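Thread title: Can someone regenerate the structure for this chain?

I was given the following input by a collaborator and told the matching structure tokens would be attached. They weren't. Posting the sequence so someone can regenerate them.
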Amino acid sequence: MKIQTQKLTAYSFCIFVSAALIVLLALSVDFFVSKINTILSPCVNDGIWQQDTETCNCETTRGIWGGDTCNECQCENNGLCVMGGNGAADTRFECFCPSHTKFVGTLCNDCYTRSHASDNEQCKGVCLDDYYGGKCNALCLPNATLNTAENCVGIKAGGGSCSVCNSHGSCDNSGQCVCENGYFNGRGSVSDQCGLTCEGGCPEDRGTCQSIGGSLQCICFDGFFGANCEQSCESNNTMPCSGHGTCEILASSGLQCICDAHYVGSDCMLKCPGRDVISEPCSGHGLCTKDTDTTAKCTCTNPWGNFECGCVDEFTCSGHGTCNLDYDGLPEDTLFATDPRSPLICNCMDGIIDGEERHYGGTNCARCKDDWFGTRCNLYCDPHGQNDELGVSIGCNGHGACFLNTVEVIETVECECLANYDVVNLAGIGQCSQCEANYFPKVGVANTTQEFCSIVCSRDNECSFKGDCNYDYDGSNNICTCDLNGVNQTFDTLDPTVGCSACLPNWYPKDLDDISTRCTSYCAADGFIGSAASATTIVFDGIDLTLRGETEAYKVCTANSEGLKQMDAVMSVLMQVDAAPKELALAVTVLRVISAKLTVVLVAVLRAMEMVVVFVIL
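Best answer:
Regenerated them for you:
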């Protein structure tokens, strides 16, 4: 029993010693590890070992790395931790954000697109207002300063850019400030973008601020002087010398206006009279000086005259007039023109001068007045008038144009008439007042439907040698008046609608060579004589018609107790020899009946002989 107790005590001692050794070993390991950590840091990616807390401090990576030993990449949205020169401030590391999205920032966790505003998972498409560039990380604020710009520090920390234009510039498509004229960027500081200008400013209508040799100064426009272009000559408006001269600094008098050629006065406000298209004032023939506070005047040299010294009788008025002293150069309809006045520079000859007509016109009296002709403008012709003093004072009656005709040294005025108008009528006067002989309608015929003198007509052609042209032709009636037919020319039976070249319908014979017989017989081939009750009718196809309006037919168709006289029922010929005795008419009628019956007999005999010849042959 005693031996077993001793064994147990020895075993317990061993266990105790072993435990003590284990504890001592553990403390020794921790001690040595701590000692080693003070010599070799376990932190990676520029992490710093903190001895007091025995942890890695990853803040030196600006949050790009994390974890116990700074070995865990903190980039979001599939960004990659990489080393590069474009990393966040004070670190060599950066997050490389994926190119297929527009996530930006130190940890690829910022987005400045419109789509991200409604969906945090999306970062693509159009940039927010004031953000530019392919990644929308170029911020540009045209009206902000560095003190009022929001997110400027943050976006620059994430690798973007920030521009503030201080209210004197605009943003371009890349997100950079474009300064207004006269404003410039400072050196180095973003707050100086478009924030520098000339001290005291340069009025934009007087000069511009420019950088000369690195310093800002006002460059003045012509006519302005001083550090801020505040000095200038007298003026009645905002322009130096009223805009009609140049302002210069003279050693003797200081600022003084040198006026343009056509202006005078201390401020060049007064315009010299006359046209300014000439290089010198007063037409180069006088001196322009101040007259009143609002006007200037010309003092002319002899022999020049008028308000602008621009007229002399022999030259300006061509020797055919005198200078108009009331001429003021203003257009005729100018409301403030002097009154009385004349808008013409010359008073041209217009009347009887030295016993002879003289009528000149034009600005410089270098031509004749309207309707006057000749080298001395003494021959009158009115295209629409009716004057009849041939060669001297004539009218073309509205049917011609006037022209001057010169034969050797003799000048006359004449009319060149329109086509088909006579130059002189039968009385020897009235040029272009009548048609030529063969043209109609004649001038003066009322209510014409054709233009005067536009239709040609002659007995030889249009009237077929059997009629004369109708002097009363007005376009609605016949142009030919046909000759009368018959022994005593009492039948008006030629057809005027065809130029008297044929008989009227139903009139015979058609042979027109013999005037005594042509067109003197009336034949209604498709009618017959009416009854006594209708003694003035011929019936056609069962319809009673008066003699088809043939008033001439009553001369050969006369009534009796049985109706109208008729010649032969077969021919239905109604005829009477005009103005012949009744006995002669009866004899002619009997002869014609006999002739017709003999014709019938002759036809029968010929047919009988034909039958005999046929019988013999058979």
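Residues 558-593 have pLDDT under 50 and may be disordered.
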